[in-house]
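Worked example 2:
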Amino acid sequence: MKQNWTRNAFVYLLIIVALVALFLGVNPMTDSGPKEMDMSTLADKITAGKVESIVIRDNDLVVTLTNDERYRSRKDEGASLLETLLNLGVPSDKLHSVKISVAPPSQWGGWLTLLGTLLPLLLVGALFFFLMRQAQGSNSQAMSFGKSRAKMMSGDKPTITFDDVAGADEAKEELQEVVEFLREPEKFASLGARIPKGVLMVGPPGTGKTLMAKAVAGEAGVPFFSISGSEFVEMFVGVGASRVRDLFEQAKRNSPCIVFIDEIDAVGRHRGAGLGGSHDEREQTLNQILVEMDGFDTDTNVIIIAATNRPDILDPALLRPGRFDRRVVLDRPDVRGRRAILDIHVRGKPLAADVDLDNLARATPGFVGADLENMVNEAAILAARRGKILISMREFEEAIERVALGGPERRSRVLGEEKKKLTAYHEAGHAVAARVLEPENPVQKVTIIPRGQAGGYSWQVPDEEKTLQSVDDLKARIAVALGGRIAEEIVFGDVSSGAASDLEHVTRIARAMVTRYGMSETLGPMVFGQRQEMVFLGREIHEQRDYSEETAARIDAEVRRIVDEGYKMCREALETHRDKLELVAKTLLARETLTREEFATLFETGELPEPPASAPPSQALKEPEIFSPPEHESSHGPATPPAPAPA
């Protein structure tokens, strides 16, 4: 940057000198030295006896006066100096008293004169040349709008393979066929098989779609073109279509190769749904993509891989056979997938002996690769902040809470005694209700320390991950969510606004049971209400009521009945275990936080477990025990895990 500034400053300085020399008529080679004197003045000076000597060089004269002043003059070309002076009336005796000498002609004089004349013109020419270069650079940059901005990675040295992807075994099997086709196309051609032209990877954000595409390129060892769907569209008309053409031309020149279009829904939405009608820039780009994918020959060996988390808004022409005719789903990993992902992310990190990756995998339902990677990184940061050389289970558990609740503990927040007591009974109500009504989802932690937006929370972790939930499961969830509010009623005889999010959660579950899951005996197995969505905006706008006012009243009555049943169930459980509620709340007031083991022991025996004996000081000097997990696969991407119930 500094060199460019210096160069430009020098150029601008030359330009200023040239302009001054040109417009002011200054000759930098000849316009310095003695003053000018015309021949008439010279004749008068000689007549007055004030001239001492004259030196003649070509047609130039250097006149020296008796007072040592020097002047410059010039005689007519081809004329004699003596004749010229005599004609101007100089007496001959005065003329003979002046020393007149002839100097030899200078060999550089003509060149210097020529250079002095041409230098301003050269500087002005340099100015125009510089301006033209600048204009050409700007023009080339403007013309490059139509060039593809895809990043190309060579397949010679793959950095990512299938070994770096975990939690998506079925997707890897599907994409393994693409790798085999790029490696051995003859194997498929001999049987008359046609490899899919396009593969559409579908899944929630962060399930590893981009990483999977790079792994395919790394396994096949072919060039990999990567571009985002939003990079096609600019404010200039026709730029998107031009970039699509340029991208596919590059792909054909480098075949066999893989073209990866991330977030294809940015340009692949339903046509005719845009605010600009059917001829806006986005739709022109989509049309060009459709044409290019149809224009591939069977021997081109170019595979198009696209990723999206909104397949429902894509144009049907993209999904028909011959274009994206294979769909690969990358869903949230199960507990085995999360365990394999953790194995990769903890590689090279020093783990303490108490770290149990199986427990961490069970404690992170709903997490995907990016959440797990973020969790491991947060644990490492916490360990470094505390001056440790090993990452312990304590750091991992706190990192899970950071990711799930979106922030660190806010210990600086000072709570009054009444507020602290209210929070303790509220969270104790959630914890005791969960222990009694949902024993399959044990309480992992209960605390009254604020974190994120929650003033306190009770965190449950299921022993076994469930993909389907029964009526009893959902009713138990409603009852547990009401535990905090009911505990406030039982103990204080009043309720606070701390249960606002709980009530919203309860109402949402009960209404879904009636209108979505068909779990109402009165209304039967039916779905009520159609969700309307604007394709261009890509989100739900409202729900259209396709039922009568009478049915709406019955739906409201059923929602009320389900919530009342959950309320009654929870109140009976808390009144039956009132002593446990008091014990847990008072312990929270004293300790602020209870772990899974502490809560379970306190609930069963009424006493806290004995703390583990501290290691003798001599053991601190021993070599630390490091857990080395087996090598597995990994995935990437963010997700939204189920957060603990806040106060």
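The longest strand covers residues 51-57. The chain has four domains: 2-109, 151-329, 333-390+624-641, 417-605.
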